[in-house]
Each structure stands twice: as C-alpha cells, then as structure tokens.
Amino acid sequence: MSSGSSEVSEAQGLKVVDAFDLDDELRAILKPGDMIRDGQGRRHRLPRYFYEIPSHEAALGTRLSAHFGINEFMLSDLKEAQRLQQYPRYVPCAIRILAFYLEQYRTACGASVHIAVNGGYRSPSHKLSVNATPHMWGTAADVYRIGSTILKSKEAIEKYNDIAEDVSEEVKVLPYGHATGKNADDHVHVDLGYITLIPREISEDRMEQPQESRPRFAFEDRRRKERRSAEAEPEQD
Amino acid sequence: MTAKSHHGEERLPIPPAKDSVAASEVSLYRNVLKIKRDHDLENLGISFYDAETTIQWAYNADHYFHAASTMKLAVLLGVFRQVDRNDLALDAPVHVRNRFTSIVNQEPFMLDLGRDADPDVYGHLGKTLTIRELAFWMITKSSNLATNLLVDVIGIHTIQLALDELEIDGVRVLRGVEDSRAFETGLNNEVTANGLLKMLRLIADGKAYSQQACDDMLEIMLEQQYRSGIPAGLPKAARVAHKTGNISTVHHDAGIVFLEDRKPYVLVILTQFKPEHGRGTAVADVSRDIFNTLAGSVYE
C-alpha cells in the first residue's frame, strides 16, 4: 500500500498519451483500438489512452486514491512483455476508476487490500492475456490478501466476494472454484467490465477528421482501407 | 563386478591381491553389499568418478529410481540453459503463486504448504522472487514451490531438451512436484545413478553450457542445507555441492565432493526401501566407505 507521503503526485500529474503516438514496438504490444474477443466470443475494443509513468520513483509516488498507488496496479513478472517491464511504463487511464472502487472495497472490508503480481493491468501481450479480460483495460484486480488473510480458502474468498458485490452493482467477482478464467481459488477477482476512459484533455475529433493523404497511424490506415473497401462493394438487395 | 549365484543372490568375487586398485574395488563392493543388507534396502544404485585418480566405479548404476527431489538438478540445468542463451535473466521476477496444472488432465492443483516447509518462498505468495532466488531455494532447501514455479517458467520441454543436448541419459523429467494425478497414473520423474553422475561431471568440468553457468550452479549447490546424506560420511572440512532427494521410499544424494589438495570426486547414491523402514543412514555409510577407500584407509 502507498505510504501517504506528502510529496506524492496525483494521477492527474501524469502525462496522458495516445498509444497511437507511441513507437512501433509499444503499439504492437499495447494494440490500441484493436478488437479482441473474450471467452464468450464477444468483441471488445482495447483502450487507446494511457498514463505514462516515467520512472520507478514516479510509480511509487503517484497515488490514485487515498490508499492505492499506481505502482500496485503495475506489478508484473516475466509473463509481461519485456518492453513493458521497463520505464516509461503505460497503464490505461481507466485504472483511476478501478482505484476508486477498490477504495470503497477497502473501506467495506475494514482492512488493507493487496493486489497480486500480474493481478492489476495486463497488456494484451501478457502471457495470461489469452482472451479479452478487463485486466487489459486496467479495470480488474486480483486481490490475494486482505489484512492478514491470505485468500486461499473457499470461506475467505466467498466472504470477500460478497463484500465486493455489495460495494456496487458494477462490481463483478469470480466465484470460488478451479476452472481457469471462470473461477478463482487463490484470490478475489474484482472487475468493472470493459471501461475505456478518455481523459478530458483529449480531443476525440482526430479519428473523425477527413483522412490525410498519408495516414499517421497504422490503425487509421487500416480503418481507412476497410471503409473504402466497404464503400466499393455493391449493396446487396 | 557383480556376480550372481544360481539362487540369484549376489556373491562376492574372489579377492585380488592386497593394495591394488582391484583390491580396493572388491573391498568397496563387499562393504556396499553389507550396507545394503544391514539397512534392508530394496534397491541401491551407486555411481562414482574421481577426477584425481580417474577411477570410476558403479553398482547397479543404470537402474531407474523414483527421482524424488534429485530431479531439481535437471530443472537447474534447464534454467541455466535458458540463462546462457539469454532467453532468461537471473534477476527476472516471477510471481509466487501456489497454483499449478496437472500434466494428466490439465486440472489445477496446489502444493500442500504444510508438507513443504519453506517459508522463504511461501512468505512471498502474491509477490515476486527472482529466477536466481527461486533456483537457490529449489536446491538449498528443496523448495517444491520454487521448483514448480521454475518448471512453469521454462517448461518441461526445455528441461528434457537440455538433457538431450548434453547427452545425459538416465534422467527422465516428465513433470513438476506434487502432481498427485500424475503420480497415481505412474507418470514419475526417474533417474539412474549414471545419469546423475554424467550431469554432475559436466557441471564439475565446466561443460554444462558455459563455465559461468557451471560456476553459478556450483555456487548454489554448495549452499545445500540438508547434509544427512553424502556430507555426513565425510570429514567436516569437505565441501559438497549436492542435491538430496527424499520421499517415503527413497533417499538419494548426488554431489561433487571437494577435498583439500586434490581434484573433486563426483558421487551419486540412490537408495530405495520399504516405507516402514525409514531412510536410515545408508547414504552416509556409502559416502563414508567411498571416502575411506579413496583415502586408503580400511573400512571397519
């Protein structure tokens, strides 16, 4: 948990980046705007706007809420893409919403809430990112410990699942069980669904502007080609 | 060296002239049989190579035993294969999580935290340890959790690939630890004394991928904390880079013995017994015997 230092900066102090402006390697890892399927085959569009965290110190010093630092949502191991383990690092802007709900959860639990490694934001290139999950939107957390309770028993997980569901109807949990992706047996999974946050300082008109002769981003190029090919096809009766 | 009577019992060869190498070998053989009998062992496998004298000696050394934790040497080898190829960094973080997948039905299983008392690793549940730290705890305290985490990182395939690349026969690694479904269906890791000897000789000679990799592996193995096997039969000054293996019916030890003013010797001792007998001191007794033989003293 964050120390509560007076020198910490707020999330608003972080630079917001449009992932289409990042270099080729990062765009390939973060896949902004790509559509991917979840376990039920439903398609979801990956987030485009990210906070850029320039250094380890900034990660440690940036609070998203009273008790959650941004570093807690970035804990990953070698399953994450190598490039994303180096600074500057990137986290979807919706992470702020997750922190807000986790803060309510913490209050309801009456104890500290600890997010597991690989349990916060996971990029689409993370080895656990097989299907779309809200982790890839920064809107899910795997909590492995609450207070001094390590969440590994049915009783503990069900108890804290119930508390999470009582926080808000937006909060979804995974029931206790052993089926990967459908259940949880060593953590409480809390997610808010596929929320994309567009910071207020962002102007959304860029994607809607008439395309220049040479599109700036590969994604825009692909969309333009798709649109043109759709226009060229004769309509079916 | 072994001979069998028409009843199938092993009988001793005719003693050669005293003070010859052959005499030492026969003496050693007699003592090994005595240890086997005294400890009521169901099976005993020994393989030994002395770099100082180049003497090599073996007893039942191609017989396959349940590997128990000696399989962790193969995991260590697989890890350093990946490190040497720059496919893995020793300081890379690994999420410490007690959740693994059976090789039989892909169902998840957890390790029994009570059986594997290694708070050094369990204390990090939910957090990370580095590859180097996991390798250290896997060998020095035989951490099952560290082992399974490393197997997950590099994959069983990589471990077998490393064994094949180095032409190590006699070590079969099919799975991680405590996969009870696999155990029930007879899918177990197995080793022979000769197989482990080959692996340890490569490490001792700096030929397992690179000198740096071998130095790193030796450094970890020298920190072994379970010393009731090979080290218990040696003078206190001896340094042993080794790995033990224990389950209810086997007790093994495989190591490289460093003594002052001589080249090291490599020794593998595998024992199997009835569960009601317990492991006893057979491994230490064999280790003492071999040390005494090398030192030229007579075993009493």
Short description:
The complex is a heterodimer of chains A (237) and B (300). Chain A has 237 residues and is of the alpha+beta class.
Please describe what this structure looks like.
The complex is a heterodimer of chains A (237) and B (300). In chain A, 24% of the residues lie in helices and 17% in strands. Chain A has 5 helices and 12 strands. In chain A, strands 8, 9, 10, 11 and 12 form a 5-stranded antiparallel beta sheet that branches. A 3-stranded antiparallel beta sheet of chain A has the order 2-5-7. In chain A, helix 3 crosses helix 4. Chain A is globular, with a radius of gyration of 19 Å. The N terminus of chain A is likely disordered. Chain B has 300 residues and is an alpha+beta fold. In chain B, the strands form 5 sheets. In chain B, strands 4-3-14-13-12 form a 5-stranded antiparallel beta sheet, with helices on both faces. In chain B, strands 5-11-10 form a 3-stranded antiparallel beta sheet. Chain B has a two-stranded antiparallel sheet with strand order 1-2. In chain B, a hairpin with a 6-residue loop joins strand 7 and strand 8. In chain B, helix 2 runs antiparallel to helix 4 and helix 2 crosses helix 6. Chain B is globular. At the A-B interface, loops of A face strand 6 of B.
Question: How far is the N terminus from the C terminus of chain A?
Answer: 61 Å
Beta-strand content of chain A:
15-25%
Shape of chain B: globular
Low-confidence stretches of chain A: 1-10, 208-215
Tags for this model:
heterodimer, A: alpha+beta, disordered N terminus, B: 300 residues, alpha+beta, 5-stranded antiparallel sheet, 3-stranded antiparallel sheet, globular
Give the SSE map.
The complex is a heterodimer of chains A (237) and B (300).
Chain A (H helix, E strand, L loop, with lengths): L8 E2 L4 E4 L5 H7 L4 E3 L5 E3 L3 E5 L2 H6 E2 L25 E4 L2 H15 L3 E3 L24 E7 L2 E2 L3 H14 L4 E2 L14 E4 L26 H15 L5
Parallel strand pairs in A: 1-6
Antiparallel strand pairs in A: 2-5, 3-4, 5-7, 8-9, 9-10, 9-12, 11-12
Helix pairs in contact in A: 3-4
Chain B lengths: L2 E2 L5 E2 L9 H18 L4 E8 L5 E4 L5 E2 L4 H14 L8 E3 L4 E2 L6 E2 L9 H4 L5 E3 H10 L3 H11 L1 H10 L5 E2 L7 H5 L5 E2 L1 H12 L6 H11 L17 E8 L3 E9 L6 E8 L9 H14 L5
Antiparallel strand pairs in B: 1-2, 3-4, 3-14, 5-11, 6-9, 7-8, 10-11, 12-13, 13-14
